[in-house]
């Protein structure tokens, strides 16, 4: 907890999800230095919005959508700052980056009008909507292409909504191995944050802790010529101005380079 005069430990351990739901623990002793960042929390639901920047749609050669394009990302895709994005080249050879503003719902809501939508936001964080473009193309729908393990870095921290004066006035950037690849602004969204919340809540209930990714500006690797894709050994950073920069190494996954995970724990 940042109390203005430095970081302090909460007197009682509480997850961020508990805080989002309304339990705000009191601060205890002051911590020396800054905390080490980790995944802020593991969302139960992550909703992605595709094709939401005009320059991206133009870069792809597609038509401007008439309504938001929705897809899911899975809880197992979420990782934190500094954790590796793991790529299995027997699964995908076209892993791509997407810097995105992510919003976190703070109240249970349904049928929210756009003029009331921002009041439902607990806070904002930085996201990298890593995407397997070849799987997207194969499937037509985007569950595999967007939902692979480690394909949703979030963080390094959550900034509460009262600290963000205008979510439509934020710079969005990506660097891969130190080279800037994306440089856009949330002002270029086709459907702004308030409209996205209203649209989603028209069809299903949004709950505290749900995350909505709001789309990415032009500059993704797969739409460049020649095409660029993430490879083991790369380092990718995404940043939302005023919120934070999120950095992740890329490592090999799969039968030869990754982890085999097995557990009886539920």
Automatic annotation (TrEMBL):
<protein>
    <recommendedName>
        <fullName>Fumarylacetoacetase-like C-terminal domain-containing protein</fullName>
    </recommendedName>
</protein>
<dbReference type="InterPro" id="IPR036663">
    <property type="entry name" value="Fumarylacetoacetase_C_sf"/>
</dbReference>
<feature type="region of interest" description="Disordered">
    <location>
        <begin position="244"/>
        <end position="266"/>
    </location>
</feature>
<keyword id="KW-0479">Metal-binding</keyword>
<dbReference type="InterPro" id="IPR051121">
    <property type="entry name" value="FAH"/>
</dbReference>
<dbReference type="Pfam" id="PF01557">
    <property type="entry name" value="FAA_hydrolase"/>
</dbReference>
<feature type="domain" description="Fumarylacetoacetase-like C-terminal">
    <location>
        <begin position="46"/>
        <end position="250"/>
    </location>
</feature>
<dbReference type="InterPro" id="IPR011234">
    <property type="entry name" value="Fumarylacetoacetase-like_C"/>
</dbReference>
<comment type="similarity">
    <text>Belongs to the FAH family.</text>
</comment>
